[in-house]
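WARN no homologs supplied; continuing
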Amino acid sequence: MAADPTTDLAELASWQRGLRAQFPIVLGHPGLVYLDSAATAQKPQAVLDSVQDYLVRSNANAGRGSYPWANTTTALVEGARDRIKEFLGDPLPDRSSVHFTSGATEGLRTLARDWLPGLLRDGDEIVVPFADHQANLSPWLEARDLLARQGVRVRVRELPRQEGSGDYDPQALEGIAGPRTRFVAATHVHHVHGVDMNVHRIRRVVGPDVPICLDAAQSVGHLPVSVAGLDVDFVVFSGHKAMALPGTGAVWARGQRGPAFRPGGWSGTPNTVGIVSLAAALDWLDAAGIERIERWTVALTSLLTDGLARMPAYEVLGCRSSLAAGSAVQRRRSIVTFRHRGIDAQDLGFILFSHGFMVRSDGHCQAGVPDKEGSVRVSLHVHNTPEEMTELLTTLANLQ
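OK structure emitted
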């Protein structure tokens, strides 16, 4: 059975208070509760300081000058590549590569545009998620259409999901994967349902030779991510969801299956200040303890889901079995999405903000779900507190 969330919250309370005090925007707005970390995470003081220090000491272009500031910037960018490999637990860093992007969406599109076509031949198949974030579906469909215009026919298969639990269905995947399966795209943590999609089971089904691309936008910076344990070939994530500045992200490439990943075209000037902030964010997350951050946010989401499950006016999206206190299945990873049975999601979002809660209320860019079928998403990070969850539940209870 799952651990009692109150145990972790009590054990980690003093640790969490020290971390919460490091978020200036949180301390500066005591009447507001930020509950949208799945869209953009707030920045601790150490990240803000790293940006200020870089801009006043050595701001320059990377790889395009021989003077000290340019050399320092180049070293910072290259050091950030190594830092990402270390953060992801890369077992063979000398064989892998890291490529910086503007975020997860650009990273996935770059793979679909510049790498995937070189892997595929006429009659091949790829397996991708049809009910995850739109950014992890559209690029693969675009790649199929691009190849079709060149006379290469590629079949796109849907990565099957388990009925009820919300995560992927390895047994059903066995009936789909075959000798022409050349590539699989998957998501680590679902951006609406908040569940770990258990992607390690995909490798067992597709075998040792099929490249797997992992959208880790909702896991990097929120919970431990081990490329050794997951055995995937690409990890794509956004810096702004991992406490770095907006406009930066990365593609980690294992470099052992399929052609080497080399983004096409002239790279231009990298987002050096964003890359500096990303390295600082990873340092901060490691110092804070990413395992403890996961324990804290899972405990908070358990409080929220346990409370919502007792309110008949609300429907919590995703796995119903995880809503019971003491559930034997996994609890939500920092994300809880729900609907009121009588209040429109947009209206509920406005009501919650009038009480000081900042949530997201729309279709959440979920593939196949129009915005008119909106819902309210609460997404948490380490600066959130049990008291905030209690206040939120009280507000929601008064709207039944």
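The radius of gyration is 21 Å.
OK
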